[in-house]
Amino acid sequence: MARAGMMTGLGVLAAVIGARFLGIQHGLWMALGSLYVALGLAYLAGGAPWLIRQSDRLLPHVPTTSGGAALGVLFGFNIPACAAPLLAVLLGGAAAQAAAGGGMAYGGVSLLIFGLALSSPLVLAVFTQRGRRLLNAIARFAARMPRITGAVLVLLGVWSIGLAL
């Protein structure tokens, strides 16, 4: 009987943690989606050179060929909607494991594996010569196509804002 009460309590705790996380995630979707729309509209209005000059001034130590990596980090804060429930389960499992005396390593390893699996295509692209060449070719193409870049950013922003609503 005591075990059932403890499991119920852990289930409620996992649900509360998941609900809090999803609330934060909705805020991030809205904020980042708004940023994407603003950047996209700036690109569509011909403001790409100004944005590039501003980012060069703000990030003086980042080589211009890896500017896409900084944008990738920003996009990384916006997890896919399909991954949010799995992440909530992993966080709940980690909390339950730690509460049961299992230590924090379980949660760390679980989330490390989740993060690696979620970003493995990008990791493979960055750490292989062929992948880097492909990313650089895409970056060169995108630099010549500010209108397409702007439209894609606006679409991603609208999609992200739609997830938040």
Number of helices: 7
Shape: elongated
Largest sheet: none
The number of E-state strands comes to 0
Seen as an oligomer or otherwise, the chain set is: single chain
Measured as a percent range, the helix fraction is over 70%
> How would you spell out the order of helices and strands?
HHHHHHH
**How big is the Rg?**
20 Å
Our estimate of the beta-strand percent is under 5%
Give the low-confidence spans. Answer: none
- What is the first-to-last residue Cα distance? 41 Å
Structural class, please?
Answer: mainly alpha
Overall pLDDT:
75
Fill in the keyword field for this structure.
elongated, mainly alpha, 165 residues
Report on this model:
It is built from 7 helices and no strands. With about 160 residues, it is mainly alpha-helical. The longest helix has about 45 residues, at about 1-45. The termini are far apart.
Summarize it.
This protein has about 160 residues and is mostly helical.
Topology:
Layout: H1 2-44, H2 48-58, H3 67-76, H4 83-99, H5 105-127, H6 129-144, H7 146-164
Helix pairs in contact: 1-4, 1-7, 4-5, 5-6
